[in-house]
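Protocol step 4 of 6: structure prediction from sequence.
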Amino acid sequence: MKKVLIVSHGMEIGGAESALLGLLTAFDYSQFSVDLFLYQVSGELLRHIPKQVNILPENPKYASIAAPLSTVIRNRAFGVALGRVIGKEASKRQLKKVDVTENSYYYITNSHKYTKPFLPMISHVEYDLAISFLTPHYLVTDKCRAKKKIAWIHTDYSHIEFDEKVELSMWDAYDSIVSISDKVSEAFLTRFPSLKNKLTVINNIHPAEFIRKRADEFTVKDEMPDDGYVKLLSVGRYCHAKNFDNLPDICRRMDNVKWYIVGYGTDEELIKEKIAEAGMQDRVILLGKKENPYPYFKECDFYVQPSRYEGNAVTVNEALILGKKVAITDYATAHSQIDDGVNGVIVPQDNKGCAKGLMDFISNKELQDKILNNVINSDWSKAEEFNKIKKIAGI
């Protein structure tokens, strides 16, 4: 029995969290003993973790990494509070050097880096393999013992501002680095060419049967009625990367469509403002956060990923698993996920081009039939990717 430790932030609804759930479903638990350590043992996806996984108890000091500072002090986690303050000051100095006033990536990275000395060991078990699933990856290097340690890349590094020297030392501490697509690897290696020999591409693994089962749990026709409009759906966090703030302007350039958005996040008010500016209150509908988004996938006519940038959009694969017609914008990693005209379409990122590309797809029934046939006859679970993890670990 091989012992594996996986470390991540929590199990809130999100693409990376869904990818983690897919990874956990891929283990053969007759061969593997899996411990899962979450900084915060919380989130809607928590209850869907396979019962064979041993979820380690929440540690108040790790839970304090992302908690409000007032809560951290109230809980008497003074070391963590000090580390976060030091990290915040370090971020300000770094940002000043690059003439940037705000960058959340600097803050979260330094928060982990400078709180590390004040954190206890995650576990005293010696593992065959330890996986740090979400960046920052400072903690797994020092806070657990394992024969091999792996860190995951989930994002396109060409769109992130960071201190390359500091970041390099974080990644280089691992035996292997896993990227979720070829394009993500290319972007990563433009910043860290010295890490090429450590890098392996492992596509996200998706729990296909789980997704299909949940899609049938209830109907959403009251929220997405059959009212004569073509129903477009986008799912994700309300943030800059997802580009939902441009959907109202794209939608107003299209005929006979309603665009539904499932998600939550900091850009909600901005998106509402853009909906009002475009006069799209009746055609761009924010459905909010959904613990189970899959019935909404099932109900839509087309799934659209309109992002500015992505690593490898989990929601795109989820839509394909459910046999949906998919369109994505031409972000840097788009072609590593969709073969244009074969299993979906890739449309321009500018609003006018995006609208035209979507309308062309909606009106082309012959292309839709061809794509759907390819989608239905393909395996989108990527379950075979788990063999690559075993190879890295020498298992």
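Step 5 (inspection) to follow. The chain has 16 helices and 13 strands.
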